[in-house]
Every structure is written in structure tokens, then in C-alpha cells.
Design a protein that fits this description.
The chain is α+β, with helices and mostly antiparallel strands. Helices cover 14% and strands 12% of the residues.
């Protein structure tokens, strides 16, 4: 699912400590990648340093 990232979301992401990136997922290993073999480059935390990047949510995200 794609969602436009706006200033309100960025503020709430920090205030509520929202998590949705691979690095926060129980199925992700930094050395091995996604346990399901999904590509991770569009879900990694560093991608969202760009405030114009669309938010992408993985259907299999499992909070650690």
C-alpha cells in the first residue's frame, strides 16, 4: 500500500514512535534480508529520510 508522506505524518511518526520498516520487523535479518524473500529496499528506514518518499507498508510486517 502506498501513502503520501506529509508533515503531519512525520510529526506523528516521531511522537508516537510508529514502526513499519524492515529494521523493526521480526521477519527481517540485516545479514539475510526478509525471511519471506521479499525485496526490502523500498521498506528500509533510510528511505524515509527523503520527506517526498511515498510510505510503503509490507503486508507481512511483524513487530518485534
Amino acid at each position: 500500500m502506498k501513502v503520501e508522506q506529509d508533515a503531519r505524518f512525520r510529526e506523528q511518526r516521531e511522537r508516537f514512535r510508529l514502526r513499519w520498516n524492515c529494521e523493526d520487523c521480526a521477519l527481517f535479518d540485516p545479514d539475510e534480508g526478509c525471511a519471506h524473500g521479499f525485496p526490502t529496499h523500498r521498506h528500509r528506514a533510510s528511505r524515509y529520510d527523503d520527506p517526498t518518499a511515498d510510505l510503503l507498508f509490507c503486508k507481512d510486517f511483524e513487530l518485534t
